[in-house]
């Protein structure tokens, strides 16, 4: 999505928008054992297709996210040997539960020239390869939406995520016309455009929130508030995943990429409170809405035979009886000593380094203040340890917490724009009931429609909504009798800080309007968090920027 100089919006799509349709192949009959999927652990799955084997996201040992996450499942005893002898590896993105340097270090010692494929993301998957000391010599960065041929029957295509295109990817694997779709961690894989009726679909399921709100205290952030928030977020993700399966109707569905645990003793509180979704529960939800879909909740070493699954036969071979499923030992000290050597906490003592990190992570323009305190493993402050504040609005380091309550600065959100565009293509002047986004707390929506299409302009459409202010009575928090003012209150809603819009030309008219048979246009804007909650005022009444404190007032916003 790009903004034009005249204030309009231009949407740029993949060409073709459904790239997997390029060079279509005839679906051939499979034989038992010809295509198998072996679940290893977390997001790691080995696919055997004909004579070739491919492994996804091999995290087989060690921690992820410093010492935050550890493997929940015990990998099969031959997991490393499978990695050393596989034909190629796909790594979806740079997060360390997918790009595991402890695992790749062992691979580099045994087979440094193993072909590894990654998408051409803005933030390179192997950004820190040089500093890691891991010597891999056959990393292939491939363009999005282009088939990569492995042999005459097997090919794959990497697609970007619509919410985090700079980092996240997913993959389609095709063998003899049979497709396997692995959405991995993508929030909106390929902007929501995905093949329907694939043979196998896999994706994440866990949810949870190990950062926000677990690290927030004071005010509304009570234990009960956090518990309810996490429960709501988990359920929202669960429903989103089930809805995606319902929409795409794969023949086989398996939730992966969520089998981790906060195993280190210092993270006991997070482990106890940061509950995650149950893959069995997700599969039950899928079965309720799509009884024809074959669901698989895998155990380490379990094998699914695609041919038998398509025949609705006994398709899964479980690991041998007595196989260890869950880990009970993580060798903390081995990895933590190495972590402490490689990553010094000194970075947090230098404000310019902190500023660089937060800018790199895009933590800017948020109405948020964080206190950074150096503690021991029991979260007790260290004597003479660092203790300072970081203001995310401007990445300053105030001596005291700013006293402010003001409107958030609204910023563009590609995911909301994609949802708006997808709904707008229906050319229907009704609200989208399925506009929820698993990455956002809630989503509001404004609609505008007009005819002919030339009557549309971003400024005039939004002005049409804002002009409803004359029909809104703040003192009673109501609209004038017979008038609308909800568009206005959503536009000015103080807690809303993300927006994404799309305009669609409707040559056959916009349904449910007086010009439904005349060429027109529909303009959709989605907002997060949503506004227009009952008995909640859209903003605190007072002079513009009256609570900015020492901040700059720009366009009546702090």
Task: Give the gist of this structure.
This is Cytidine monophosphate-N-acetylneuraminic acid hydroxylase-like. The protein is of the alpha/beta class. It has helices spanning 79-85, 101-110, 129-132, 223-248, 268-273, 279-289, 306-310, 332-342, 351-360, 414-424, 458-466, 486-491, and strands spanning 2-3, 9-10, 35-41, 44-49, 52-56, 70-71, 88-90, 116-119, 139-142, 148-149, 154-160, 169-175, 178-182, 200-203, 252-255, 260-261, 294-295, 303-305, 316-317, 369-373, 387-391, 411-412, 444-450, 472-473, 478-479, 498-506, 520-528.
What does this 3D model show about the protein?
- The chain is of the alpha/beta class and 558 residues long.
- Helix content is 21%, strand content 20%.
- The chain has twelve helices and 27 strands.
- It has helices spanning 79-85, 101-110, 129-132, 223-248, 268-273, 279-289, 306-310, 332-342, 351-360, 414-424, 458-466, 486-491; strands at residues 2-3, 9-10, 35-41, 44-49, 52-56, 70-71, 88-90, 116-119, 139-142, 148-149, 154-160, 169-175, 178-182, 200-203, 252-255, 260-261, 294-295, 303-305, 316-317, 369-373, 387-391, 411-412, 444-450, 472-473, 478-479, 498-506, 520-528.
- Strands 9-8-7-5-4-3-18-19 form an eight-stranded mixed beta sheet. A seven-stranded mixed beta sheet has the order 10-11-12-13-14-15-17.
- α4 (223-248) crosses α6 (279-289).
- The two termini are 27 Å apart.
- 36% of the residues are buried.
- The mean pLDDT is 86.
């Amino acid at each position: 999505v790009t903004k034009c100089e005249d204030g309009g919006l231009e949407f740029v799509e993949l060409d073709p928008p459904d790239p997997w349709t390029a060079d279509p192949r005839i679906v051939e009959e499979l034989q038992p054992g010809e295509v198998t999927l072996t679940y290893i652990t977390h997001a790691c799955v080995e696919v055997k297709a004909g004579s070739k084997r491919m492994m996804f996201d091999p995290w087989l040992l060690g921690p992820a996210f410093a010492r935050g996450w550890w493997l929940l499942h015990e990998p099969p005893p031959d997991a490393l040997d499978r990695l050393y002898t596989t034909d190629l590896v796909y790594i979806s993105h740079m997060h360390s539960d997918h790009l595991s340097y402890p695992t790749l270090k062992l691979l580099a010692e045994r087979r440094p020239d193993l072909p590894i494929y990654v998408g051409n993301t803005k933030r390179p998957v192997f950004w820190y390869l040089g500093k890691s000391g891991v010597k891999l010599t056959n990393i292939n960065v491939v363009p999005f939406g282009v088939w990569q041929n492995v042999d005459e029957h097997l090919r794959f295509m990497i697609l970007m995520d619509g919410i985090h295109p700079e980092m996240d990817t997913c993959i389609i694997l095709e063998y003899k016309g049979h497709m396997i779709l692995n959405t991995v961690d993508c929030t909106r894989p390929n902007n929501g455009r995905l093949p329907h009726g694939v043979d196998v679909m896999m994706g994440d399921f866990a949810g949870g929130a190990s950062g926000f709100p677990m690290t927030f205290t004071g005010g509304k952030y009570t234990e009960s508030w956090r518990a309810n928030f996490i429960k709501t977020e988990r359920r929202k993700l669960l429903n989103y995943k089930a809805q995606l399966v319902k929409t795409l109707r794969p023949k086989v569905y398996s939730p992966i990429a969520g089998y981790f645990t906060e195993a280190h003793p210092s993270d006991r509180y997070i482990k106890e409170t940061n509950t995650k979704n149950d893959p069995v529960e997700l599969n039950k939800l899928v079965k309720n809405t799509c009884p024809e879909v074959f669901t698989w909740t895998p155990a380490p070493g379990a094998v699914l035979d695609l041919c038998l699954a398509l025949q609705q036969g006994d398709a899964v071979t479980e690991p041998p009886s007595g196989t260890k499923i869950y880990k009970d030992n993580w060798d903390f000290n081995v990895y933590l000593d190495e972590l402490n050597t490689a990553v010094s906490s000194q970075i947090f003592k230098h404000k310019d380094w902190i500023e660089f990190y937060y800018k790199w992570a895009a933590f800017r323009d948020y109405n948020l203040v964080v206190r950074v305190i150096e503690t021991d493993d029991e979260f007790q402050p260290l004597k003479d340890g660092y203790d300072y504040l970081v203001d995310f609005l401007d990445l300053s380091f105030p001596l005291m917490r700013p006293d402010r309550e003001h409107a958030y600065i609204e910023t563009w959100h590609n995911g909301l724009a994609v949802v708006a565009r997808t709904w707008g293509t229906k050319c229907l002047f009704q609200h989208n009931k399925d506009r929820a986004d698993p990455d956002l707390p809630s989503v509001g929506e404004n609609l505008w429609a007009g005819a002919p299409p030339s009557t549309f302009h971003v400024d005039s459409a939004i002005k049409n909504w804002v002009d409803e202010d004359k029909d809104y009575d703040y003192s009673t928090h109501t609209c004038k009798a017979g008038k609308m003012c909800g568009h206005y209150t959503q536009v000015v809603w103080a807690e809303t800080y993300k927006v994404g819009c799309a305009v669609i030309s409707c040559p056959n008219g916009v349904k449910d309007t007086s010009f439904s048979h005349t060429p027109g246009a529909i303009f959709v804007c989605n907002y997060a968090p949503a506004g227009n909650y009952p008995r909640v005022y859209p903003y605190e009444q007072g002079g513009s920027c009256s609570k900015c404190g020492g901040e700059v007032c720009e366009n009546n916003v702090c």
